[in-house]
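Appendix B, example 12.
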Amino acid sequence: MKKHISVSLCLLALSLCAQAQTEVSYYQPGVTVEGVTYFLPRTALRIIVEAEKTVVTPGELAKYAYRYMRLQNVPTEAQTTWTIKNITVEPYGTPDKTKAYSILLKGRTSAPLVSLTKDGLLLSINAEKQEQPLSPLPQGTPAAPLPNARAYMNQEILSAGSTAKMAELCAQKIYDTRESRADLIQGEASNTPTDGKQLQIMLDEMDAQANALQQLFSGSTQTSTEFFSLTYDPTKETKKDVLFRFSSVAGLVDSDDLSGAPVYISIQSTGSLPASTSSADSDKKKAKLDKGVRYNVPAREQVTIYDADYDYCSLEVSMGQFGNVEILGEALFDKKTTTQAYFYQENGGLQKLEQ
């Protein structure tokens, strides 16, 4: 969403021959009457964590797995395990309340077209620029449903008088199914279809039946993927700040939940910005520019997310709050020019100037 503020034609008609300019001042609540108030952004980080969840469920007939199926080391207790698969970082701009300014609109001013985000971040002057929303959170992948083993049980199995007898009958049915499948493949079954597609359908059905019944002994493993989103708004550089904690049993937990191991974030400068100098000439020039449009010169920061074992991601991000505020001279936006200025939404830096 954007907001456009422009002066009506009648105001333009009031302009005199004298040069009129767009004046920018510090925002003072209750003082600024006619003007466009905007904020410079601080750069926050949206952290997206992709995690994999694995659920192991023991089979109903697990204790008979070796006796009837010769299966060893089958699970006997339910278990849930979480692992981090990937972490991505998306920088975005959020209003810095300490960097609020107003573009004053006067009767003799060639007021610009100003594009703002819905939160008041400056996007462009004398040009239209669309606000860019955060990307949608990726959709996770649900676990595949477990087959219904009872759908393949005959009446004899379902009416078995004990669990041991049910296990014996289920095992026998698995062996019978495997034998029938082998006969179909070798063409020795009396009902072997001549059509290859029909044969494949029969083989797939036999596989599904045998696998479903075998899971009663071997148990099952289901895997799903989930995405979690959290925000981090840094106020200072850091080498080791706890971003969140991660538990192999519960997954992503709060940063103060000691059931999980810490995952850290590091934000370190990749190089210092030029220091501002002060002299009689520079102060005089700055005084002339004082009514211009403020913008950020963001600092380049190396952002790394890691834990005790892995570096999950590392990237360079330009961040507005660690940089300097500079000024575009008001002469760029007077009635004799048609300067178009574009600014980065995520850090308030100057993207480009066009005339």
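Helices lie at 9-13, 65-69, 155-158, 163-186, 196-218, 280-289. The radius of gyration is 34 Å.
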